[in-house]
Amino acid sequence: MDFLAIPTLRGDLASLEPLAPEHAEELAEAVAEEDLYKIWYTRLPTPDRMSAEIEKRLAGHAAGQIVPWTIRAADGRAVGMTTFLNIRPDHRRLEIGSTWIAPSAQGTGVNTQVKLLQLAHAFEALDCIAVEFRTHWHNHRSRAAIAALGAKQDGVLRNHDLWRDGSMRDVVVFSIIDSEWPTVRLSLTEKLRTRNRVSTASSTR
């Protein structure tokens, strides 16, 4: 059970591959879509800082702190990034975070597929007992997406971070525990199966 391994994880709607410097140009284009990097309650790399962000994440992996992936949509485009954070092998738990997905890939099932791949790896390959998610209080879309996975809200950490504009960030904490994983897996799998069925029916009309 190597918590720092970065396996390639494949699904029908998206796949995860180890983050690499050569992904910088594609990821810069992805984060530039609709000026995604400018959303005030996120900390996304600007297009011109994507190479530096990749170097930072790879350094974090080398230091044993994070596990970084590039997200690829089914059409082969690199559409975002995601990581394992706060990795605690001794306590068999970790956090899924620092995730962003290009607007063109949002609402397409990519996020559901990615989270299913990550959660399956965490609970089934790494034998985790808990997986955590954290997000900005004002990031309502992220909070809804995390809840839709089947995660339960643990609480709110008030004034947890000093934000880049000097404001304070309240952090909303969610988690899925090992006893909940079978039901969460079934739910996410069914969501993807339903989406695939609808997409197939639409393409044959």
TrEMBL record:
The keyword Transferase applies. Residues 26-173 form the N-acetyltransferase domain. One of its GO terms (molecular function) is acyltransferase activity, transferring groups other than amino-acyl groups. Keywords: Transferase. It holds the Pfam family Acetyltransf_3. InterPro entries: Acyl_CoA_acyltransferase (IPR016181), GNAT_dom (IPR000182). Transmembrane segments: none annotated. SUPFAM superfamilies: Acyl-CoA N-acyltransferases (Nat). PANTHER family: BLL6696 PROTEIN (PTHR43610), N-ACETYLTRANSFERASE DOMAIN-CONTAINING PROTEIN (PTHR43610:SF1). This is Acetyltransferase.
